[in-house]
Amino acid sequence: MIVCFAIQNVLLPTLISLYSNMGAPAPDPVFVLRGAESPVTAVTFLCVAEGQRENYIAAGTQNGKVLLWNLQIKSKVAEWEAHASTSIHWLYSESPDILWSQGRCDSVKAWNIQSSSPHLIATYPLMDYLGFSSSHIIQVNNSTKLLSLPGPSQEGVTVWDVDKKFKISTLMPLDAKAYGSMMQPRWIKMEDIITLAVLYESGRITLWDWANSKILSQHQISENPMCITFDELSQTGIIGTASEKIFVFKIDSDLNISIMKEFSITNAGVSSCVIRPDGKLFAMGGWDSRIRLFSSKKCKPLAVLIYHKKTVECIAYSKGDIEDLGGGFILAAGSSDKSVSLWNIFN
Questions:
Q1: Where do the WD repeats lie (predicted)?
Q2: Please, which residues have CB within 8 angstroms of residue 308's CB and are 6 or more apart in sequence?
């Protein structure tokens, strides 16, 4: 055990140094999923039931279809039109048999995918929202699940109790036009407190008391934010922007937001960002078709993954170990080039 630990602590920094060296080639994807007819705009790994061997991944496309692959046999097992003639901006798996999807200018839908023919079980309408924001879900307790979705109008966010199918509140800043379009909502859980962080086009990140439609705190950044992710273990988050700048923020016990670090990447534009489930790494999908990996603690660049020919629209980490792809957390990236690349790196 001591020997293994020592080897791990010698090899991992060496691998990180190797991948970070611009003269060393980055690894190739372990597999590439094809079959989409249009750009891939959303991706998620499905939950795995206890005792289940198979792992699945779902992708949403610009023409409104959902594709489902079995990663054990590396084959597409289902495909259906989830949102007619509109791009899918968000997919989410809460259980092995339920998949959520969101179509632009359409609605959020819950699908039962247990059978060979997925069928619709719930719909939540988007109200007059024409932007590109995704939705977000959080499980509060055994009886309550909260859904935040875009609208009404460009600046609003609507909060639903999923199980009761009840609209709880609408979050709209008083001087909404000064905030600009809502870019992305993200549920934030800190011990027993649940708040909703919302990014706005103006560069504001705002924490909402969603139950009372009140702003708790907010912070202004200098760039147009595009995406947000948050790690509950460290209580820190990442904001990707339309420029080269990336922001690392923290929320303290008084629910105040502060920027811990600001750094730049080579080329402008981040479409998606995600923190690995163990909190050690975070990844970003770029407009320049690159996937960038960083250490969470020091934001040190670890690798630039090059495979796609067009924008990396969406990225996601597996929820656990996937043995069929070499073990460890697997990173998936969906691109405008109509493919999904799968990566096993730093495991």
A1: 305-347
A2: 289, 291, 333, 335, 336, 337, 339, 341
Rounded to 5 degrees, what are φ and ψ at 186?
-150, 120
Name 123's Cβ contacts closer than 8 Å, sequence gap at least 6.
107, 108, 109, 110
Instruction: Look up tokens 């977000």; give the residue.
Output: 136
Closest alpha carbon to 234 in 291, 284, 314, 299: 299
Q: Which of 85, 5, 86, 78 is nearest to 35 (CA)?
A: 78
- Kindly list the strands in the beta sheet with 56-61, ordered across the sheet, starting from the edge strand earlier in the chain: 40-45, 56-61, 65-70, 75-81
Half-sphere exposure (Cβ direction) of 258: Cα atoms closer than 13 Å: 6
Rounded Cα distance, 88 and 105, in Å: 10
My answer on whether omega of the bond before 152 falls inside 30° of 0, hence cis, is yes
Burial of 152 (C-beta count, 10 Å sphere; 0-12/13-18/19+): middle
pLDDT, position 48: 82
Helix locations, the chain, DSSP H:
2-20, 176-179
Alpha-carbon distance of 324 to 55, in angstroms, equals 9
Those residues with Cβ within 8 angstroms of residue 320's Cβ, 6 or more apart along the chain or in another chain = 48, 277, 329
Sequence-ordered list of residues with C-beta below 8 angstroms from that of 110, at least 6 positions apart, any chain: 98, 99, 100, 120, 121, 122, 123
Q: CA-to-CA distance for 61 and 252, rounded, in angstroms?
A: 38
Contact 342, 33 (CB under 8 A): yes
Specify whether the CB–CB gap between 116 and 78 falls below 8 A: yes
pLDDT confidence of residue 141: 84
Q: Which of 86, 77, 15 is nearest to 328 (CA)?
A: 15
Burial, 149: exposed, middle or buried (Cβ in 10 Å; 0-12, 13-18, 19+)?
buried
CB contact at 8 A, 249 and 235: no
Per the structure block, which two tokens stand in for 117? 């023919």
Q: Which letter does DSSP use for residue 27 in this model? A: P
204 membership: H or E segment, kind and range: strand 204-209
State which residues of the chain have pLDDT below 70.
Answer: 1-25, 51
